[in-house]
């Protein structure tokens, strides 16, 4: 279970160091501080255990990207909870290790402010929802746990209907 504060924040700690270099256009990729492949595999292993996910290829990213799609019967989140179809998150290949996912707007603001994320270039330009972010690849096990928390928030966002 991912805990949040009463106002919906995650209380994410600041990410240490400078932000990694990223490509400012498509394909949006992390260019420095790449996650070690063993941490990427551990994260992917965790990601595939989420309830109702169908691991597969991404509908919007480069070929070595692995994506999580929700079973349509439980994909009740708002349209801005998905990259395409029922794909709510994907993990880029070993040369990158970052993720794209959709998060609630308050979590996006917190993740960006604390140095864990940046908006997707197409979201910055207004072509895609502001819920779409790149989460930087984890550099160690402590960061893996933070990224895993964010993946679970994305999963919950994709499953839960919007409330009025």
Derived from helix and strand composition plus strand pairing, the structural class reads alpha+beta
Number of helices: 4
**Distance between the amino and carboxyl termini:** 23 Å
Stretches where pLDDT is under 50 for at least 5 consecutive residues are none
Strand order of the largest sheet: 1-2-3-4-6-5
* H/E element order: HEEEEHEHEH
The number of distinct β-strands equals 6
- Rounded radius of gyration (Å): 14 Å
Strand coverage percent: 15-25%
The average pLDDT is: 93
Percent of residues in helical segments? 25-40%
Biggest sheet features: 6 strands, antiparallel
**Broad shape:** globular
Protein name: Luciferase domain-containing protein
Region (Disordered): 1-37
Domain Luciferase: 85-154
Pfam families: Luciferase
Structure characterization notes:
Helix content is 26%, strand content 16%. By secondary structure, the protein is an alpha+beta fold. The chain has a six-stranded antiparallel beta sheet. Strand 3 and strand 4 form a beta hairpin. Helix 1 runs parallel beside helix 4. The two termini are 23 Å apart.
């Amino acid at each position: 279970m991912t805990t949040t504060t009463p106002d919906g924040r995650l209380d994410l700690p600041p990410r240490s160091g400078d932000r990694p270099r990223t490509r400012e256009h498509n394909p949006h990729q992390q260019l420095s501080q790449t996650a070690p492949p063993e941490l990427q595999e551990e994260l992917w292993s965790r990601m595939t255990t989420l309830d109702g996910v169908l691991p597969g290829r991404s509908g919007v990213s480069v070929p070595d990207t692995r994506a999580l799609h929700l079973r349509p019967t439980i994909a009740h989140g708002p349209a801005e909870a998905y990259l395409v179809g029922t794909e709510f998150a994907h993990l880029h290949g070993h040369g990158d290790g970052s993720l794209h996912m959709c998060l609630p707007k308050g979590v996006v603001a917190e993740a960006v402010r604390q140095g864990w994320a940046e908006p997707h270039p197409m979201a910055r330009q207004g072509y895609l929802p502001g819920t779409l972010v790149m989460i930087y690849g984890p550099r160690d096990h402590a960061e893996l746990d933070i990224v895993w928390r964010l993946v679970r928030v994305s999963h919950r966002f994709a499953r839960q209907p919007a409330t009025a």
